[in-house]
């Protein structure tokens, strides 16, 4: 039960902070907020259309908001980050609801304001939108007007995932008007949206290349042999003594002989064969790091190989008497 109470308490705090920000930064085009806990405090991201009105002169407004959130809502070390909506403002339902409410407060007729908002949203690429204005529109009685265009979902998981909903209030002399905006995002994909992939067209085999005509070679006339040029005797080159190598590099000793080394079994032979090592000479050319890089070869096994391998190649057997 303690966890449920914690979730309820945290969500209640989020709702109160959101209501507080909507009231404090009215006119800046509030588009939503998110709260994230970090090791150094609480990060509050605010999406607005006009960031300058939230930051204030030399950051005075944002410092005041930070202190108010810390004191009123008991938030640990709040850090406010402002993000500009930019070109996506027309696809944010909360921003469009506030702009529609501001237009109604400036004296726009509700039909003109509703149709203008729908047209702007659809021109931005939305798949569908709906604007609902309710209140005292034309007389003393309450009424509701809806402006809908495109595809709109009202309920179910599709509406929860793909519809963006915003709400704002317009305060007029006859009374208060409620403004609600629903927007289906451009990237929304319906459950019944099926894409059929057409099979690739069969490839036509290319025509065989034409056979070239045979080339007739002309008979070659032998040229006169050039005059012999006397060759001057060259000084004798002293033969270099043969280089004494430790072993013949062409010699290939089977890798299976490493089983004569104490502690080396057939499993090690299989691991070396898997690493494409087929002779003891190849194994001898590798250092300790190269042996450790082979999968399955440990530090102790690698040191054992380095210690006894050369002796095994020279003597052929290192087992004791």
Give a quick precis of the structure:
With 321 residues, the protein is an alpha+beta fold.
Describe the structure.
This protein has 321 residues and is α+β, with helices and mostly antiparallel strands. It folds into three domains: 2-84, 2-Layer Sandwich (GMP Synthetase, Chain A, domain 3); 90-184, Ribosomal protein S3 C-terminal domain (2-Layer Sandwich), CATH 3.30.1140; 255-315, DNA polymerase, domain 1 (Orthogonal Bundle), CATH 1.10.150. The protein has helices at 2-24, 51-55, 60-72, 93-105, 110-123, 156-162, 266-274, 280-284, 288-292, 299-315; strands at 30-38, 41-48, 78-84, 128-135, 143-150, 163-171, 176-184. The strands form two sheets. A four-stranded antiparallel β-sheet has the order 5-4-7-6. Strands 1-2-3 form a three-stranded mixed β-sheet. Strand 4 and strand 5 (143-150) form a beta hairpin. Helix 4 (93-105) packs antiparallel against helix 5 (110-123). The longest helix is centred in the first third of the chain and has 23 residues, at 2-24. It starts with a helix and ends in a 6-residue tail after the last helix.
**Shape estimate:** elongated
Cross-sheet strand order for the largest sheet = 5-4-7-6
Radius of gyration: 42 Å
Order of helices and strands: HEEHHEHHEEHEEHHHH
Mean pLDDT: 79
- Count the DSSP helices: 10
Task: Tell me the distance between the termini.
Answer: 78 Å
Number of domains: 3
Query: Approximately what portion of the residues adopt beta-strand conformation?
Result: 15-25%
The portion of residues assigned to helices is 25-40%
CATH fold annotation of the largest domain = Ribosomal protein S3 C-terminal domain
